[in-house]
Amino acid sequence: MADRTSQRSVHRALILKELREISRDGRFRVAGAVVLALLLATLAFGAREQQSVKAERAAAQATADDHFRAQDEKNPHVAAHYGTYVFKPSGVLAFVNPGVDAFVGVSLKLEAHKRNPLEGAKARDGTALSRFSRLSVAQVIELLVPLLLIGIGFGVWTSERERGTLRQLASLGVAPRALLLGKLLGLLGAMALLLVPAGLLGTAIVALLVDLGGPGTLPRGLALVAGYAVYILAWVLLTLLVSAHASSSRAALVTLLGLWVVGGLVVPRLAADAAVAAARAPTSARVAANVRESLTRGLPGGPDREARVSELTEKLLERHGFLGAETLMDASLLSGLELQAEAAFENEVIDHHFAVLARALDRQDRFLQLFGALSPVVAVRSLSMALAGTDGAHHRHFSDSAERHRRELVELLNTEFAERGGALGFDYKAGRELWAKAPVLRYEQPTLGWVLGRQWPSVALLVGWLVLAGAGALRAVRRMRVV
Question: Which long-range contacts does 180-184 make (Cβ < 8 Å, 24+ apart)?
């Protein structure tokens, strides 16, 4: 019992010593104040901007829906060509990490026979310098917090050795593990002075403005906090590891800054370029050209357009009980079924080519995540964007949901034409009673399980960095020279 009390006293003394030394360091006070101010400012402005974006897109969506319902009388298939617009909601935690939101489209036109790309990317309206003009919470945590850690922790062991106090601690019989724990908790305590206020503000934003992203915001937010906690702890342990190995404070600082530059700036850029090179994805223009070609000739290895449309038409005739009795049908019903068959063929073509694109982009994502083995920044950045709902996978998820909505809308209009056109054929016109039946897009963000299922390599690599840094720091402290 006495030994445990003594150990606790030693730990408490070591922690208080580290906190006292760090708090007296003018570099920590200045740099810490700057980082804290940046964190609070980016959280507040990011949340305000996301709330504004959500309101703008909701108003635009309501206007588009009202415009479609208020259109004049026209043939239902003509209305399908007339189409409507849907607007992509912002990511659930975009105020933390905006991800790729500025580089992908916002609005999407839904019309017959086409799957259009999203348009209105914010980055296209900016200058080349605009991409560097916005600092996010994620960037502050991923780059500036480790830099602050390096600034206050690079000499945590070497300065003790240079002053001779490390030898005194060793002569008192303080175990290396106790020394490591004291240094670790001291650095974490200093960082808590900066990160806890920012974390409380972020929690308040999520609690008070939970409608920013819907009911899935809170669990994603908690997972994001856990991910960043692991990331920061890994950097603390890495700093302790390097400082214990280094021969001098200058060597420790140079080594840690080199790791920060390579891991935070060089590897992420190389990872993005390597992922694109390793899994070439067709451009939007190439996909559109492939779709047009297949709509004319048929899918590769399959029947041509006319044969496939005829096959699909026969299936529809059989389903409606008119196979072999086409002459007994109303012309509009036959035309409506043919339109449905053509739409089914077009959907097959669209699904084929967009699946090729999706598989290539998924390969790029997986390849990029593997670079988390070279840098914890890559791992936490990939996980952060996914949890914030601002990565490429979420963009494709919305695009797929919008495509299903487009097909539902086109099928409703074509069915109306087939069943009610009668002898009027294409002269038949529907009114607002039909437009009012048009489905409304109710997009729901994927679940947390869906995100973690796609991001398990990043999670595993981030935890791996933590374990390896911790084991390395403990081993280095046990073998560390005291003089």
Answer: 180/240, 180/473, 180/474, 180/477, 181/11, 181/14, 182/10, 182/11, 182/13, 182/14, 182/15, 182/17, 182/18, 183/14, 183/18, 183/156, 183/157, 183/240, 184/236, 184/237, 184/240, 184/473
User: What are the pLDDT digits (tens) for 299-329?
Assistant: 888 788 888 888 887 787 777 666 665 555 5
Model pLDDT for residues 358-395, shown as the tens digit of each residue:
999 999 999 999 999 999 999 999 999 999 999 999 99
Both tokens of 181, joined, read 């724990």
- In the block, which residue shows the tokens 């679940």? 447
Query: Residue 128 pLDDT more than 50?
Result: no
Structural domain boundaries, residue 9: 2-478
> Which position has the token pair 């003790």?
160
Which of 463, 477, 481, 423 lies closest to 181, judged by CA?
477
The residues that bridge with 360 in the sheet, in sequence order, are: none
Whether 483 is in a domain gets the answer: no
**What's the full length of the chain, in residues?**
483
**One-letter amino acid for residue 208 of the chain:** L
In contact, 184 and 267? CB cutoff 8 Å: no
Structural domain includes residue 464:
yes
For residue 452, tell me if it sits in a domain: yes
User: 3-state DSSP call for residue 119?
Assistant: strand
CA–CA gap between residue 359 and residue 383 (Å, rounded): 20
Q: How far apart are CA 460 and CA 463, in angstroms?
A: 5
Our measurement of the distance from residue 179's CA atom to the centroid of its chain's CA atoms, rounded to an integer in Å, reads: 39
What phi, psi does 412 have (nearest 5°)? -60, -45
Instruction: Provide the domain count of the chain.
Output: 1
SS3 at position 107: strand
Report how far residue 375's alpha carbon sits from residue 297's, in angstroms, rounded to the nearest whole number: 47
The token duo for 130 is 């605009």
Rg (CA), the chain: 30
Report the DSSP beta bridge partners of residue 108: 86
Sign of the alpha-carbon torsion through 94, 98, 99, 103: positive
Distances (CA, A) of 263 to 143, 160, 238, 377, 451: 10, 27, 12, 6, 24
First to last CA, the chain: 33
Among 381, 386, 382, residue whose Cα is nearest residue 397: 386
Tell whether 96 is covered by a domain. Answer: yes
